[in-house]
Description:
The complex is a heterotrimer.
Chain A lengths: L15 E12 L2 E12 L3 E5 L6 H8 L7 E6 L2 E2 L5 H9 L1 E4 L11 H6 L8 H5 L5 H13 L15 H14 L4 E5 L7 H17 L4 E4 L3 H7 L2 E6 L2 E6 L6 H8 L7
Parallel strand pairs in A: 3-8, 3-9, 6-7, 7-8
Antiparallel strand pairs in A: 1-2, 1-4, 4-5, 9-10
Helix pairs in contact in A: 5-6, 6-7
Chain B lengths: L2 H7 L7 H20 L4 H18 L7 H32 L7 H16 L2 H12 L3 H25 L4 H8 L4 H32 L10 H10 L3 H28 L2
Helix pairs in contact in B: 3-11, 4-7, 4-9, 5-7, 6-7, 7-9, 8-9, 9-11, 10-11
Chain C lengths: L1 H36 L4 H18 L6 H35 L7 H16 L2 H12 L3 H25 L3 H9 L4 H32 L10 H10 L3 H29 L1
The structure holds adenosine-5'-triphosphate (ATP) and magnesium ion.
The site of adenosine-5'-triphosphate has 10 residues of chain A, from helix 1.
Amino acid sequence: xxxxxxxxxxxxxxxxxxxxxxxxxxxxxxxxxxxxxxxxxxxxxxxxxxxxxxxxxxxxxxxxxxxxxxxxxxxxxxxxxxxxxxxxxxxxxxxxxxxxxxxxxxxxxxxxxxxxxxxxxxxxxxxxxxxxxxxxxxxxxxxxxxxxxxxxxxxxxxxxxxxxxxxxxxxxxxxxxxxxxxxxxxxxxxxxxxxxxxxxxxxxxxxxxxxxxxxxxxxxxxxxxxxxxxxxxxxxxxxxxxxxxxxxxxxxxxxxxxxxxxxx
Amino acid sequence: xxxxxxxxxxxxxxxxxxxxxxxxxxxxxxxxxxxxxxxxxxxxxxxxxxxxxxxxxxxxxxxxxxxxxxxxxxxxxxxxxxxxxxxxxxxxxxxxxxxxxxxxxxxxxxxxxxxxxxxxxxxxxxxxxxxxxxxxxxxxxxxxxxxxxxxxxxxxxxxxxxxxxxxxxxxxxxxxxxxxxxxxxxxxxxxxxxxxxxxxxxxxxxxxxxxxxxxxxxxxxxxxxxxxxxxxxxxxxxxxxxxxxxxxxxxxxxxxxxxxxxx
Amino acid sequence: xxxxxxxxxxxxxxxxxxxxxxxxxxxxxxxxxxxxxxxxxxxxxxxxxxxxxxxxxxxxxxxxxxxxxxxxxxxxxxxxxxxxxxxxxxxxxxxxxxxxxxxxxxxxxxxxxxxxxxxxxxxxxxxxxxxxxxxxxxxxxxxxxxxxxxxxxxxxxxxxxxxxxxxxxxxxxxxxxxxxxxxxxxxxxxxxxxxxxxxxxxxxxxxxxxxxxxxxxxxxxxxxxxxxxxxxxxxxxxxxxxxxxxxxxxxxxxxxxxxxxxxxxx
Lengths: 264, 263, 266
Ligand SMILES: Nc1ncnc2c1ncn2[C@@H]1O[C@H](COP(=O)(O)OP(=O)(O)OP(=O)(O)O)[C@@H](O)[C@H]1O
Ligand SMILES: [Mg+2]
């Protein structure tokens, strides 16, 4: 089965997410996601918008099999990961960075340890336990912390940071995986508006810098417009809009979210 | 209070008939049980008379065999320390394997059963069985207290693990971390402090219990205590009791200090 | 600013780490000293598997016929000892707990005296208490009941005192301001707030006492332990196994009962 991304016939796709006819039912006969297909590749940031409860989180979690999809396929850089289990799944997950709404840091570990958690997929457990990471990883982690402005916090415990700082650490952890794709499930929902903008800036700039396609679930349409090059509108389990933010009209929004009073 | 409000809200303190019935049932039960056990006031008073004589024989406590006493106390402490070390060591994996939020039920089930088994028998019963298995002496006491420790720490540790936040685990799984790394990085940091707390408590408990296992021959001061009791050597008995209480209080003092270190 | 904060946090963990290290080091030294000097005969340990196998072989088949004739009565006795002992502990612990709560009784000497009783009751093992009470009251359930009661005072009283100290002072001040006598202050001010915690403690202790009253008979204080002791002395292992099984069942049932009741209370 060929992947959409290969349709141009050129070299095999580097760094892409390709979702093909993905469906998910938590309860039999009640699909949350129906036949979703799209491809994200190269340097692009894509926002997924949609009302609460449509299955945005479900979709993004199906990509790294935190939630197993009911049917359909997910390809990461051309590799079908849908049927992987055990060690193979772990190997595949290393290629998928994920940023969480509530940061999901280990509160009692230091910032440095949290960032190095991104390398756990590459480092054997006993080395991780003794904190004996390859020097290369440690250098990279320090460089990354410096670039996100948290160098001086490296030895501090994660629970002593502010929300914005924690999310930066969460992003750094994902980047440490050297992922092929980056997923973010409402990375700004627990943050104030200004910090939200900073986090979006950081995500987009890191994705550009490291050449990682970015898929973001987001509630804030304005942020989506401002920082992404493509918006996918999800409603009732299907894709309603898929295109550049400039063409996203109020009509589309009405269709996605329903009603219109909230648009003023 | 006017009649009106009384009508609307009832009396301010409602007579709680259930509570009264409960108290009455309690009294009836106590009378019945006392009768069943042949516990009577007369026997109690007679006992108090004996008690006075008993106490009189205990003073002054006889510390003349202090060398034996010290040797026994040291053995008691040794039993407690060795048993705590191994008990703590074993209860770490047992607790992890019994946690239902980390492991599938076919693994947790046998470990939970094992913990329940360790908990439901009083240590002295284990001590009896181990004395049969490995003979008289401190080894039986050590094995006994290892099992008791696994029962206690294992249960509380399992419960602590079942209360942790699963969010960091999710993140590390999503990063492709192997299972052991997930445990080391996302589970242990969340529960290690509590584990240390349970362990230091158990160290205390093991010390108390190691004064007792000797009664059935499993080493420590209990054996000497029981012998003194059987020989009506009550002034030596008093000396032993005083040293046990002193030892336990000393260990409580030390363990509150240690607890402060671990906040 | 953040620099200073991080520096401060570092220093704190440094001393903390040092203290922890000292504790671990101390324990390691104590452990290695103990391992060296404790008298263990390794041959006994190698022999243990055969001994255990032999034990189980002798325990099988279980002599279930012995339950109605020899065990049942003793088991009921054990349960009564546990319950009556716990009630006795409460009767004694309420005054002692009240004496120990420094927001009710304002005499430090009395507070201190109550704490002394509580500590001594807890720090001596129940089997040792049982021995003492057997010496006083003679063998039998009376000694057992008093032993269980006395042994539980510390536990019940300590937790009861803590529950009383946590009581919200608002209603009590209101009652005191209205000039209520101290007994009704206790009954209407303290008791309603502390009662749930108190019953919880009672159940918790009863659960423990069922386990303890099953063994104090080994030194003559009544209950199933006496039957166990006899069976052990006569090497009736197929009776021992039935006794152990019935203790196990009763203990598990008691625990289930307690959790069920606690769920309904809370
Ligand atoms: N584990 C689960 N079991 C059953 N149903 C679930 C489960 N997780 C989610 N759902 C259901 O699936 C639907 C989609 O949930 P999802 O979390 O993906 O929505 P969402 O679009 O991310 O919403 P939000 O914007 O509020 O985060 C919801 O109706 C939810 O009730
Ligand atoms: Mg969501």
